[in-house]
Amino acid sequence: MADSGTLLAFKAGRAFRREGTNFVDPSPAKGAILLRREDDLLHLMWKNRTSNEVEEDLILFPSDATFLKVSQAPGRVYVLKFSSSNQRHFFWMQDASSVRDEEFVNNVNGFLMDPDYEASWGSSSQPSTSTSTAGASQSSAPSNFQATPEQLAQLQQLLTSAVGSGAAPPSNVSLNNILTPANITPLFTSHPDLIPTLFPHLPPDLPMPPSPEVLQRIISSPQFRSAVSSFDQALRTGLLGGLVRGLGLPEEAGTGIEPFLRAIQSQAESERGEDTMDTD
Amino acid sequence: MSGNYDPEFPGFFAHQVVNNACATLAVLNALGNIPALKSGSQLTQLLEFTNGMDPQTRGLVITSSDWLREAHNSLSPPSAISLDGLGLPKQTEDAYHFVVYLPFMGFLYELDGLKPHAVSHGSYNETGEGWLSRAREVIENRIATYPPGALDFSLLALREDPLPLIQAELAELQAAGKQAEAADLVVKLESETSKRNRWNFENSLRRHNHVGLVHSLLVALAKAGKLESAKERAKGIMKERVSKAKSKGEAMDES
């Protein structure tokens, strides 16, 4: 063994359960999991690769713990589970490439079962490398020491429950107070050219032909107001990313009232630009 | 509770076993007690099938009726969005509860799908308005049990469709050359027709997915340069509402 007692090491970050909930929040700190044998005891350590400090040092007795993939979250999230207690430690793989994930995990579990386990490494015959310093393993492969913001955001989404996490901060604007007859009716006189753009969206089985008067009736109707209210409530859950794409808006527009309205403003401006771009 | 339970009620009475179905159930509890009702095969079969069943079983049979469920659901808005299972506060869940009042064998009955039995409100006088005046009394007393100013009451009447009758009578009068009476009926006919137009309008709104309209209205407002000001106004409305609610709360604390 090259190093004194380090059995294996790989880049990993930690994630923590939010108290009283089933949410787990990833920590962006760059780190590494190290398995070491010290005084005949197996240690699983988590080292911060930026500060070089060992911030977690767990002693593991044979078959006391397992290192498992978190199945509810797609992606490279793992949990160290103890049979002797309710302790759970969450980790996420930080190497840009996932090619060696399984290899690392199998070897971790091997040691957790039996400290005398002999690590096996894929095609390489070398013992595990020690990556104790941040700059140590600069390889030619485009391996990333940092978690990219995308990876972090993706992880956040994977680990946390849908409602609440992706939602924009609560808005004090209610769509019902924007789409009022008082706001809409003046459009009929000030911008009559905009009215026909609304007709395709009226019920197809209306018992009368579309007209500004019919539009006015619809907007004041309890059925329409109730629909606006439901849509408002749905938008506040932050989950309408998929739905708003169908309206030609970016996914971000489905995360709340404010983002939705901002996206509408942009959409209107770009469409208005097209309207005036007549060539001749 | 006013009136008395009548566990021996021999008419049609079904329990409500599904949420948000009380209006449909009330209609059925009414229809099931109309003697010689002219109904289509589906309803006839349903009523015959449940003959002699207890209220709970009747309720379950009704719930499992596919054609009835489809008819009931056909007037809800098509949900591109389902808010079920997210634990959000429900906006209108059985906001109203429907109860039927009807005459049966000389007595006024109240059929409430959430009560264990039909409720009898005693006999009524056949003269004048007959059972209607007793029903009015009972209903007014019930309304009086709510705080004054409460407006959450809705009264619907189940009646025979007058349109065919009006049309038939009109044809007769016109054939007999009675223009004056015919003119009166024409007015009635127009009133019935415009009612139906209004219902058709409302139903087409009920069945429609309004998301596209909401989106295009907002875009139209934005194109007209009016979205920002509408937003600011909306914020103001919310602020006002919140401060009103707060001051109401304070007023209550002082008393």
TrEMBL record, chain B:
Q: Where is this site: Transition state stabilizer?
A: 16
Q: Which domain of life is it from?
A: Eukaryota
Q: What EC number(s) are associated with this protein in UniProt?
A: 3.4.19.12
Residues under site feature: Important for enzyme activity: 112
A single Gene Ontology CC term: cytoplasm
Residues covered by the UCH catalytic domain: 1-160
Residues forming the catalytic site:
22, 97
Task: Tell me which InterPro entries the record gives.
Answer: Papain-like_cys_pep_sf (IPR038765), Peptidase_C12_UCH (IPR001578), Peptidase_C12_UCH_sf (IPR036959), UCH_C (IPR041507)
Catalysed conversion reaction: Thiol-dependent hydrolysis of ester, thioester, amide, peptide and isopeptide bonds formed by the C-terminal Gly of ubiquitin (a 76-residue protein attached to proteins as an intracellular targeting signal)
Q: What UniProt keywords are attached to this protein's entry?
A: Hydrolase, Protease, Thiol protease, Ubl conjugation pathway
**Record keywords: Protease included?**
yes
Please name the GO terms of the biological process aspect recorded for this protein, alphabetically.
protein deubiquitination; ubiquitin-dependent protein catabolic process
Please list where the region (Disordered) is annotated. Answer: 233-255
Q: Which PROSITE patterns match?
A: UCH_DOMAIN, ULD
Q: Which Pfam families match?
A: Peptidase_C12, UCH_C
GO molecular function annotation: cysteine-type deubiquitinase activity
Identify the PANTHER family for this entry: UBIQUITIN CARBOXYL-TERMINAL HYDROLASE, UBIQUITIN CARBOXYL-TERMINAL HYDROLASE ISOZYME L5
Please give the family membership noted in the entry.
Belongs to the peptidase C12 family.
Q: What is this protein called?
A: Ubiquitin carboxyl-terminal hydrolase
Q: Which organism is it from?
A: Lentinula edodes
Please name the taxonomic classification of the source: Eukaryota, Fungi, Dikarya, Basidiomycota, Agaricomycotina
